[in-house]
Amino acid sequence: MKKTKLLVLFGGQSTEHEISCISAGTVLKNVDFDRFEVKACGITKEGDFIVMPGVDGAIDVESIVSGKWASVPESGKEGIKPAVDTIYGCDVVFPVMHGIMAEDGSIQGLLSVLGKPFVGAGILSSAVCMDKVYTKVILKEAGIPVVPWVTVERTDLSDLPLVKREIAAKIGYPCFVKPSNSGSSVGAFKVVSEGDIGDKLKEAAKYDRKVLVEKYIPAREVECAVLGNREPKAATPGEIISTSEFYDYDDKYINGTSSTRIPADIPAEDRELIKELAVKAYVALDCAGLARVDFFKDRETGEIYLNEINTIPGFTSISMYPQMWEHEGVSIKNLITELIDLALLNKEENSRTI
After folding, report:
1. From residue 214, how far is each of 15, 89, 206, 227, 303 by CA, in Å?
2. Which residue, 35, 40, 55, 70, has fewest beta-carbon neighbours within 10 Å?
3. Looking at the structure, do residues 139 and 182 belong to the same domain, yes or no?
4. What is the mean pLDDT of residues 127-153?
5. Whose CA is closest to 147, among 132, 157, 160, 162?
6. Is residue 124 part of a domain?
């Protein structure tokens, strides 16, 4: 049987570059080489495209995971043309990329222009899900519970007293401050008093012109994996047990002290509700392929809120998305194959009929 030509795209210019490389390593180690002919292409932090030498098991995965692949002298960097030629030569692309200029519709736009099917959500869904503010607007309209919020533009900070009054009136303290377009909790802060809010808003605004200020919820963090196109299905939710005050970047990727529990240790009816809400949100935001949908469960009231949707969740050794499907009996190898099949099907389903 003729193999499907798969290109794994990784790296990128976001603050989650390193996580992307680790995720790509997991995919490259677990892909079904009997069915797929695999090549890999990385994008450096500077935006240079580097096509990795080798095919299938000959790809230097350890170089990708360690980041050494990007240490190419300027004279050795190939530019975008060889990468575009490589994309043209493949049948399907798996963009294992996180954050801005990757998960936000940018890469999806490039691949759409080149006419190549790819794993994951399309341009619109990717862009909206990356933007925490617009995600909340759509979810609220769809009747899905979200944490109350205030949006602060970078230009609003010129009148900080007015911003402080709005936050105090609508949100109060403590609260959370986050860039609207960012991931892995980069630029996110818990603010306990008005005296700290100005500095944290300015820090978050370095990552995005739009900053989200959310009401503090004494929450347990529950995640749900969704898989599919027009008829998505949800896995049993899992819970993040964080050792930090909240599940920040260090706790996720550096300290290694957080843990996970699958299924989440919450009432069965709550797990079912979370699965229903995850699928409802997935459909409302026109997702495809995969998404990890993150929820808060208020420790005091028991209320459940949808926090955010990740359209290209991590595939590292600690990532919840593949773990939740493994709990359902789907190996990571079979999960990768199903995602690629869904990408090919999505291309077919979205083709114009006139």
Report:
1. 22, 45, 18, 28, 16
2. 55
3. no
4. 97
5. 132
6. no
